[in-house]
Amino acid sequence: MGVGGVFTLVYALWGSGCIGLMTDDAAVRAAAEPYMGWLIAMPIVSTLAFMWDGVYVGAAAGKEIMIAMIWAAVAFVAGYVATAPAWGVQAIYVGYFAHLLARVLYLTAKWHPLSRKITA
């Protein structure tokens, strides 16, 4: 979570500078600006999703990961389809954010009952 928080802060404060490190082309830099909000938001949500993946892999709970990924795929499609007409290409980011959020929510909700099985 610390790493995700640091990157969120870096992107929030110096996101345009980070893009500037990758290119000096003004058109590319301008094209990247509308996506800056996603760059700022993704590290926290993705850190949580990948953290839970590691916990569940370590707990040998493949079934829960599989179910979480099914829900995540459904969330991606729903997020994309619901926002594509109004948001255009940004709907891909909405879908991916929904995908990560679905994994986080499902795996968080399932952990407490699973942890009782592991310790029993």
Structure in words:
89% of the residues lie in helices and 0% in strands. The relative contact order is 0.13. The longest helix is centred in the last third of the chain and has 30 residues, at 90-119. It is built from five helices and no strands. Helix 1 crosses helix 3 (36-58), helix 3 runs parallel beside helix 5 (90-119) and helix 4 packs antiparallel against helix 5. It has 120 residues and is mostly helical.
What's the structural blueprint in terms of helices and strands?
Blueprint: H1 2-22, H2 26-32, H3 36-58, H4 62-87, H5 90-119
Summarize the structure.
This protein is 89% helix and 0% strand.
Distance between the ends: 29 Å
Please state roughly what percent of the residues sit in beta strands, choosing from under 5%, 5-15%, 15-25%, 25-35%, 35-45% or over 45%. under 5%
- What is the total tally of β strands? 0
Low-confidence stretches: none
DSSP helical segment count: 5
> What gross morphology would you assign?
flat
Order of helices and strands: HHHHH
- Which class do the helix and strand fractions yield? mainly alpha
Mean pLDDT: 91
Q: Roughly what percent helix?
A: over 70%
The gyration radius over C-alpha positions equals 17 Å
Multimer state: single chain
Q: What profile does the largest beta sheet have?
A: none
